[in-house]
Design brief:
The complex is a heterodimer of chains A (747) and B (65). Chain A is 50% helix and 20% strand. In chain A, a hairpin with a 4-residue loop joins strand 2 and strand 3. Chain B is built from two helices and four strands, in the order E-E-E-E-H-H. In chain B, helix 1 packs across helix 2. Classes of the chains: A alpha+beta (747), B alpha+beta (65).
């Protein structure tokens, strides 16, 4: 194994439509000499290849993919993309903050002076020409430094033959600025609008900063995932155990894990007998028995026994690393949604430009025939059309809506989440830990006629005392609930993953699986039928025998949360389709689906596969909300239109998701939908307030009232006072309207 | 109904349910999805060879019916 020559690359692939295409590509790449490992993901349309750089070049792999008949769009050695992206996001927040500081520092004095001058509070000195020059100086850094990003955004948008908010901002502010410069140097007549252009830019950059902040947090999910990876491993070399950093473990190395330790890398058991908590990967709470030949997953926790295993995947090749990669890719590939304000701008901008042109032509042909007055009117239309409060319409509503959610125990991570939730058409529910409690509870006790239920439970709990196994805890809790007093046993012996054996007044007491009983030569026939019925209901059955005879059975099962059924009913009432998805077996999944009234479910879904289901529904034009709590849910949470995590689940899931239900109560989902609906309604109202005052003033700016001598002078053409009043009243209306969200009813 | 093989992914199906098909050198080949079909059309020889390696002697085309 030459470690240095191993390289890993991620290759973007086009043309895959089904899971079978995946296998064709994997087979094709594997044929190449020097490929160590390959995995192709349909959901993310990427191949991850580990290869020997001395025997094979990245180009050879690309050619092979093309030979198999698929397209290659991009390739990058290793995972440099997310890191650079993280940096870019952090940089963006910093840049927006800088812009806001600069914008505010220059805009505030400018706005104050200018408004005081408009209302004649400054005395005659303020009307001198040099004051206009001062305003020019104050507004220039705002226009060029703060405004630069809108010019870039505007050109990009115009290049795609559409107009977004950037176009409106760039157009309105630069027209106001350029026109004011011409007025200052006395080429054009009229008033200067330096403060209008500066205020537009500064108000809008405030909103942008809030957004950038929210976005930079998404990569936290990846950081927590990486922390799950154990840092060291115990290697066996020449039959000596030594602890090494996990990076040094190589495929084929022999690794030893002691009870209670984390399994460092993926592998296959050579010897040992234990059970392993794989809940962080599979989402299932029951530990999985591991013996010779069984697969182990890095990051999972070994319970009782010592295990020796052969490493089968390390570093970027492990299941955990692949989940990390899936989360990163899903986050990076999520299509940005078109913001409401951009949708409005797309219609508004062309109309305003048209109105401005008509105004110009009208005044040029039918007015005095001079260029300057016609130009002034055209500029007035463009200046007044750009609503300053537009930048506040969305952020204030989002801010209040988010606060409202937090009070209900619903944390929206970003504004996109709040804008998306109301559009959801389908909810994918993870089973264990989401719909169910994720902790097994005692459901049944059946005893032979010669025996007492309480006695069975007391003995079982005494035997299981102190065990970490979830089944043991379920039995202990049940005994505690009935306030049974536990007893000291005379001897005690534990059989990993199978059962326990103790002694009381000289008699053997056995507790464990059916296999364990058979091993101990116990005849199960007395209760076999009852046990079968319980197993059909997806319950785990534990047998008890005393003195060589079966005395009773106890059954434990993951139980439904009391609120799940009601939540599903509410979601259906809101017109959503609800689908259950689980890594658990068919019977258990069907049982739960039936109980909460869900017809469509998928069982035995592997970790990493959930994201494919999300994608599949998205391809059917569904807006998918994924609800989950485990690490295995993280990629699906990131891929879904809205990922919903539970506050009772893992940190990783919460960070990959767009919103978190703090109490883990699914009934909060319909509430979140109602909050989102109310917020969107408020945003739309805000936009009409923001645009409304300005739209009303467009006819004034166009000089429609000019011919009427009886109309007050102020209204016959646009005056800075009008622009200032429009700005103030629309901003107040918008903020007041957003605050109303605090009282919205959610029932 | 005739059993056919998708030479790209190796899946077996029947000609009535698979709507993706293409003609190559006078033979009709059926596919499970459009992805496999377009992959085949871009490099038919590779996939025919590959299929023969994996399923020696098997005829992926619709045998006479």
């Amino acid at each position: 194994m030459e470690e240095s020559a191993q390289e890993r690359a991620t290759i973007g692939i086009t043309g895959m439509t089904c899971a079978n295409c995946v296998s064709a590509i994997e087979k094709g790449i594997r044929k190449l000499d020097g490929v160590a490992d390959v995995s192709v993901n349909l959901a993310t349309e990427r191949a991850s290849v580990q290869f020997d750089a001395e025997r094979l070049a990245l180009g050879d792999i690309v050619r092979q993919i093309e030979r198999v008949g698929f397209g290659v769009i991009e390739m990058s050695p290793d995972r440099s993309l997310p890191d650079s992206e993280k940096e870019a996001r952090k940089g963006e927040t910093r840049a927006q903050l800088n812009r806001l500081v600069v914008g505010a520092a220059f805009t505030l004095p400018l706005l104050l002076l200018s408004m005081m001058r408009d209302f004649s509070l400054l005395g005659p000195w303020a009307d001198q020409t040099w004051v206009n020059y001062l305003f020019w100086v104050l507004s220039t850094p705002v226009q060029l430094y703060v405004g630069w990003q809108y010019y870039r955004g505007a050109f990009k948008s115009l290049g795609q033959y559409s107009a977004n908010m950037d176009v409106l901002v760039a157009l309105g502010s630069s027209v106001a600025y350029v026109y004011s410069v011409f007025v200052t140097v006395e080429i054009l007549p009229g008033h200067v609008y330096f403060e209008t252009s500066a205020a537009i830019l500064t108000l809008i950059v405030t909103g942008k900063l809030l957004e950038a902040r929210a976005r930079s947090q998404t990569s936290e999910a990846v950081k927590s995932l990486m922390e799950l990876q154990p840092r060291t491993a115990r290697l066996e070399r020449e039959s000596v155990e030594q602890q090494v950093p996990v990076e040094q473990v190589q495929v084929e190395d022999i690794v030893v894990v002691r009870p209670g330790e984390k399994i460092p890398v993926d592998g296959v058991v050579l010897d040992g007998d234990s059970s392993v908590d794989e809940s962080m990967i599979s989402g299932e709470s029951m530990p999985v028995d591991k013996q010779k030949g069984d697969r182990l997953v890095g990051g999972t926790i070994n319970y009782q026994g010592r295990l020796r295993f052969r490493a089968s995947a390390v570093g970027q090749g492990t299941v955990l690393a692949q989940i990390i990669q899936l989360v990163e890719l899903a986050q990076a590939s999520k299509a940005p949604i078109q913001r409401t304000v951009d949708q409005v701008a797309a219609v508004f901008v062309p109309i305003v430009v048209l109105v401005a042109l008509i105004t110009f032509l009208w005044w040029y042909w039918f007015g005095t025939g001079e260029l300057a007055p016609a130009l002034v009117r055209m500029v007035s239309v463009l200046v007044i059309a750009c609503p300053c409060a537009m930048g506040l319409a969305t952020p204030t509503a989002i801010l209040v809506g988010t606060g409202r959610g937090a009070r209900e125990g619903i944390l929206f991570k970003n504004s996109e989440a709040l804008e998306q939730v109301h559009k959801l058409s389908l909810i994918l529910l993870d089973k264990t830990g989401t719909v169910t409690t994720g902790r097994p509870e005692l459901t049944d006790l059946i005893v032979e006629s010669s025996f007492e239920e309480e006695e069975l439970l007391r003995l079982a709990a005494s035997l299981e005392r102190g065990s970490e196994h979830p089944v043991a805890r379920a039995i202990e809790n049940a005994a505690k609930e009935r306030s049974l007093e536990l007893i000291e046993l005379e001897s005690f012996e534990s059989f990993a993953g199978k059962g326990v054996k103790g002694q009381l007044t000289g008699k053997d007491i056995l507790l464990g699986t059916a296999d364990f009983m058979v091993d101990q030569n116990i005849d199960l026939s007395a209760l076999e039928r009852e046990a079968g019925l319980l197993e059909d209901q997806a319950r785990t059955v534990i047998w008890m025998a005393i003195g060589g005879e079966v005395k009773g059975i106890a059954a434990v099962a993951d139980t439904l949360k009391a609120t799940s059924r009601e939540a599903v009913i509410h979601l259906k009432q809101l017109g959503l389709k609800v689908v259950l998805i689980s890594g658990d077996n068919q019977a258990a999944t069907r049982a739960i689906a039936g109980k909460i009234g869900i017809d469509e479910f998928f069982a035995e879904v592997l970790p990493g596969q959930k994201v494919s289901y999300v994608l599949q529904y998205q391809k059917q034009q569904h807006q998918v909300g994924m609800v989950g709590d485990g690490i295995n849910d993280a990629p699906a949470l990131a891929q879904a239109n809205v990922g919903i995590a539970l506050g009772t689940g893992t940190d990783v899931a919460m960070e990959a998701a767009d919103l978190t239900l703090i109490r883990g109560d699914l009934r909060e989902i319909p509430k979140a939908i109602r909050i989102s609906r109310a917020t969107m309604r408020t945003i739309r109202q805000n936009l009409s307030w923001a645009f409304g005052y300005n739209i009303l003033l467009i006819p004034v700016a166009a000089g429609l009232l000019y011919p009427f001598e009886s109309v007050p002078e102020l209204l016959r053409q646009l005056h800075p006072i009008l622009a200032a009043m429009a700005m103030a009243s629309s901003s107040i209306s918008v903020v007041a309207n957003s605050l109303r969200l605090r009282g919205t009813r959610l029932e | 109904m005739v059993k056919v093989w998708d030479v790209v992914c190796g899946m077996q199906g029947d000609d009535e349910h698979w709507h993706s098909k293409t003609e190559y050198k006078g033979n009709v080949y059926y596919f499970c999805c459009d992805g496999c079909k377009s992959a085949f059309e871009r490099s038919p020889e590779y996939h025919l060879e590959n299929f023969q390696e994996e399923h020696p002697g098997l005829d992926p085309r619709s045998s006479d019916d």
